[in-house]
Structure formats: structure tokens, C-alpha cells
Design a protein that fits this description.
The complex is a heterodimer of chains A (about 180) and B (about 325).
Chain A: H1 12-17, H2 20-23, H3 26-40, H4 42-46, E1 56-60, E2 66-70, E3 77-81, H5 83-87, E4 91-95, H6 97-104, H7 110-115, E5 120-123, H8 125-138, H9 142-146, H10 150-173, H11 175-178
Parallel strand pairs in A: 1-4
Antiparallel strand pairs in A: 1-2, 2-3, 4-5
Chain B: E1 7-11, H1 15-24, E2 28-31, H2 49-61, E3 65-70, H3 79-91, E4 96-99, H4 102-111, E5 116-119, H5 128-138, E6 142-144, H6 151-160, E7 164-172, H7 183-188, E8 204-209, E9 212-217, E10 220-226, E11 240-243, E12 246-249, E13 256-258, H8 263-268, E14 273-276, H9 283-301, H10 309-313, E15 322-323
Parallel strand pairs in B: 1-2, 1-14, 2-3, 3-4, 4-5, 5-6, 6-7, 7-14, 13-15
Antiparallel strand pairs in B: 7-13, 8-9, 9-10, 11-12
Helix pairs in contact in B: 1-2, 1-9, 3-4
Classes of the chains: A alpha+beta (about 180), B alpha/beta (about 325).
Chain lengths: ~180, ~325
């Protein structure tokens, strides 16, 4: 049985399958997504206040690469970077990928994950708090990030959230495999 | 024992959390504006005027109430900020204003007679005389009880007063003389009771160091955690300090209040409403805690078997530890 604060991590082979170079196309794609989201829901970024211009280093510990995110509305940017570069951001947030995605879609509670050390944060705490509260209120669905609407959005949300739920169940059932990461 | 059903009062830091609380079974939701007029003035948290009005519509459509916390203490040169917040709360159609400052209480009592006034825990009113004063002067209809009273004291208090009482049942503890905390002010220059920020986040850091994590507030080391050890809120009152040659949690332990096992006792003591702390917590916390307490309160109201809330909510507790606090106090 997994101890309560052990991370449900992706199996080690994922890191080998997706080296840092494989993540590079994600940067421009996620930048476009964020900017599109800012056009559609500007109030979401207003909640960030002064922290809009902060640089957030997001480090999924079970991937070979990390992200640097500046959530500055329509000037937002996302870059795929090395772990070292992410660590030099204003804010560093580290945790297993499935946990970080769970925080993004509201499945998981950020405070509970932090108290139990599943995720760790360092740097400008007020920016982390502003980001966390903004994400909480945004109720983002996968289709929001992709700019989809209608039936297609519903299919994508069902598919992506369903896949994440299955992935969480699988890594929960296979903690030994998870530790390989 | 009260014959009416107890009200479950739940926190909402954002509009999404308000909807989550209502959908999880809250009878009432409390929230505040995005400024220093409420005691949870944190980045990214709270409501604009428009968001509050929308939240009130949503809550009322689902049979729930909205209580607006304007519960910090007004500054002598800026009282209008607090008065305007009260005006906006009244205009939104909210059901009650939770306040502690005489200026705010007086303004609402004089100008917004249609809205209920609840006395915030920040007022630290814990005697029949103090509560009677607020009721007589401002028409306060409910008092949120300080978290320093035992069940027996609450029962005695309820026998002596004519207003409703609301008792905290879950969440962070703040057992100093509530409304008069100087610890955060001393360390950061910001007061929880004036600026609405206990341990302002811009002065908090969690530093990864050899051997673990160090939590600091404004440069003061509050606690050190070994790897994997649960951490707590970075407040001075829950820090670990050295005194008399011993390192300990000098003021209070980093534990969460959980009075889920005392719902029947609180009802018997005449309590009208049960309050869950945590406007700074997210939807996941609010949904889970409200659902668990909804189940527990309904079980008590139906005279059924008590629900084991401690087990249900262990993962949502600060420091992963829980206490029944002063309700079963064995100390003086």
C-alpha cells in the first residue's frame, strides 16, 4: 500500500519515451492556448493581479522537462525548459504530472497536496497563491485550453478527463512501477 | 435543545467555490470582497461586486443564503471603504453581513435595516453582557462564537442570550483572543484584524534546504520540516520555537479543528449554525468537507447513527492532525 504522501507518479519509461526535445512543440501550442483563453475570458487573468507578470516554473517530476509560464493575458507565454532553468523562475512548483493536471482541472485540492508534501513550492508565495486561486475559480476544462465549443468540446472533455482518471487509477494500483520514475 | 434544523455555514473564497459549496449542501455560504474589508484578503481570492451579486442569485436559486464578511476593523481615515462594502453587500441582495467593527455595525443598523447583522468572531464576544450589548445597540441577530468555549459554556451562554449562536466545527484554529492578534503585525507590519492578512503571502517563504524545508515569515524561521513530513500554515502562532531549553509549538499545535463528533452536543447546547472555516481553501476541500458535514448534520437531525467525520476528512486537515479544540477542553 502506498504511504499517504507518496506521489502517484508515471512509470519510468515515460521519461525515456518523451525526452526534453519531445516536449519542445508543447511551448508554442500552450502559448497559443493561453492567449486564446485570455481573449475569451479576460476576467480570469485579472484575478491574478500583479502576479500576471511573474514567471512560474512548473516542474512535473516524472517528465524529463519542465515549463516556464508567464500568464500575462494576451501576452502569455509558455516555454519548455530544462529542470535547472525552471528552478530559476520567480516561483517553482514541483509535483507528479497527474497531480499537477488534477490541480488544473480542480480534481485535487492544492492546499491538501501541499500540506501532505505531494507538491512542493518555493519562490514568491503570493504569486503561487494568486495562481492557485485563479485556477480554482477558472474551472478549466481541456476544451477551454484548446478553444473548442459545443459537442466537440464535450467529447474532448469526456475523453481527456476520463483518460486522466484511468491513468490515476493505474498508477495508484501500480506504485512499484511508479517509483521507477 | 433547539427544535429547528441546524444551519450549515460554509466558506467560499471564489465564485466557483460558492457554487461548489451550495451544490454540496450548504445552507449558507459566507464570502468577502476583494479588499481589506474582510479577514481573508489574499491574492486571487474573494469577490468583485458583480461576482457577489451573481453568487447571491445562484445561491438563492438553489435555496441557500449568502453571508458577507466585512469583518476587519476600519481605519480612522478610511471608514468609507468599509461603509461602501456594506452598501454593496446590501445591494447585492445578500442575507446577512458579518461584522465586528462598531462603525460597520452602526452603519448597517442605521442604513440597511432589511439585512441581518451577524457578529463576527473577530469581536470575540463570549459573555451574555457583551453579546447583549451588540444585540441592543445594533440589532445583531447572531453571534459567531470564539473558539475558546467549552460545550458547557456554550450551553450556559445560550440560556442567557436572545440571539442565535454559530459555532466553528471544522478548519484552522485561531485560539488567541480573536480580533486582537499582534503576532503577524509584529513580524510583518500587516495586521490580520486591520488588513485582513494573517501572514501575508509576500512575506512567506518555503525554502528547500539540506535535510528538509524551512518555513519563514518576514525572515523569521517559523518551522523546519523533514522530507515527507506534513507541513502547516506559515503562521507565527503555529511555529516551533525554542524556550526554556526546549523546542516546541510554543503557542499552539498546527492541527485542524474537527468537531464533527460533537454536532449533537452543539445542538443540545442550543447552537443554531455550524461553521466550516476555510475561505482560502479550494473547491476540492469545500466540496469534500461540506458533503461530509451535510451527511453528519442530517444524521443528527434524524436521530440516526453519528458519522465518523474524522476518518472522512483526515486528508483535508492542516498538518494531517485534528482536535476537538476547546469544546472538550481539559485545561484552563
Amino acid at each position: 500500500m502506498r504511504p499517504p504522501n507518496a506521489e502517484p507518479m508515471l512509470p519510468g519509461f515515460v521519461r525515456q519515451l518523451f525526452p526534453a526535445v519531445a516536449g519542445l512543440p508543447l511551448g508554442p501550442l500552450l502559448t497559443l492556448s493561453l492567449r486564446s483563453l485570455a481573449r475569451r475570458r479576460p476576467s480570469l487573468f485579472e484575478r491574478l493581479g500583479e502576479s500576471r507578470s511573474a514567471c512560474f516554473g512548473i516542474d512535473p517530476v516524472d517528465l524529463a522537462f519542465a515549463f516556464r509560464v508567464v500568464p500575462e493575458g494576451q501576452r502569455s507565454s509558455v516555454r519548455v525548459v530544462s529542470k535547472d532553468e525552471a528552478a530559476r523562475s520567480d516561483v517553482q512548483i514541483k509535483g507528479p504530472l497527474l497531480t499537477l493536471l488534477g490541480l488544473l482541472d480542480g480534481t485535487l485540492d492544492g492546499d491538501a497536496m501541499f500540506f501532505s508534501r505531494v507538491i512542493s513550492i518555493s519562490g514568491r508565495t503570493e504569486a503561487v497563491l494568486a495562481l492557485r486561486n485563479t485556477i480554482e475559480d477558472a474551472e478549466l476544462r481541456p476544451a477551454d485550453l484548446l478553444g473548442l465549443h459545443g459537442i466537440l468540446a464535450r467529447y474532448v472533455d469526456t475523453g481527456v478527463l476520463g483518460a486522466l482518471s484511468v491513468a490515476r487509477r493505474l498508477v495508484d494500483k501500480n506504485p512499484s512501477g511508479a517509483r521507477e520514475a | 435543545m433547539t427544535t429547528t434544523r441546524m444551519e450549515l455555514v460554509c466558506p467560499a473564497g471564489t465564485p466557483a467555490t460558492l457554487r461548489a459549496a451550495v451544490q454540496a449542501g450548504a445552507n449558507a455560504v459566507y464570502c468577502g470582497f476583494r479588499d481589506e474589508t474582510n479577514a481573508r484578503n489574499f491574492p486571487g481570492l474573494n469577490f468583485s461586486r458583480d461576482e457577489l451579486a451573481e453568487g447571491v442569485r445562484f445561491a438563492h436559486d438553489h435555496g441557500s443564503k449568502v453571508l458577507v464578511a466585512i469583518n476587519t476593523f476600519a481605519r480612522v481615515d478610511d471608514v468609507d471603504i468599509w461603509k461602501k462594502a456594506a452598501d454593496a453587500a446590501a445591494e447585492s441582495g445578500a442575507d446577512a453581513i458579518i461584522a465586528a467593527d462598531f462603525a460597520v455595525l452602526g452603519h448597517v443598523a442605521k442604513n440597511h435595516k432589511q439585512i441581518r447583522l451577524h457578529l463576527s468572531v473577530q469581536a470575540a464576544a463570549a459573555t451574555p453582557e457583551a453579546i447583549g450589548f451588540y444585540a441592543a445597540q445594533f440589532g445583531v441577530r447572531r453571534v459567531v462564537l470564539p473558539r475558546v468555549l467549552s460545550l458547557q459554556e456554550i450551553a450556559a451562554l445560550n440560556r442567557a442570550i436572545d440571539v442565535e449562536t454559530e459555532a466553528f466545527v471544522f478548519g484552522g484554529l485561531c485560539v488567541m483572543i480573536e480580533g486582537r492578534c499582534y503576532l503577524s503585525s509584529y513580524a510583518t507590519g500587516k495586521s490580520p484584524n486591520l488588513n485582513g492578512v494573517c501572514s501575508p503571502p509576500q512575506m512567506v517563504s518555503y525554502d528547500e534546504e539540506p535535510g528538509g524545508t524551512t518555513a519563514r515569515l518576514s525572515g523569521f524561521t517559523i518551522d523546519r520540516y523533514e522530507r515527507g513530513q506534513p507541513v502547516g500554515y506559515p503562521t507565527l502562532c503555529k511555529g516551533k520555537f525554542k524556550a526554556g531549553g526546549r523546542t516546541s509549538h510554543l503557542f499552539e499545535d498546527p492541527v485542524s479543528l474537527n468537531a464533527g463528533g460533537m454536532i449533537a452536543g452543539l445542538k443540545a447546547a442550543g447552537v443554531t449554525a455550524l461553521k466550516i472555516e476555510g475561505r482560502q481553501r479550494g473547491k476540492g476541500y469545500v466540496s469534500e468537507v461540506v458533503r461530509a458535514f451535510r451527511k453528519a448534520v442530517d444524521a443528527v437531525e434524524k436521530g440516526g447513527e453519528p458519522v465518523d467525520i474524522g476518518r472522512l476528512l483526515a486528508g483535508q486537515s492542516e498538518g494531517a492532525r485534528q482536535t476537538a479544540g476547546a469544546y472538550e477542553k481539559k485545561w484552563r
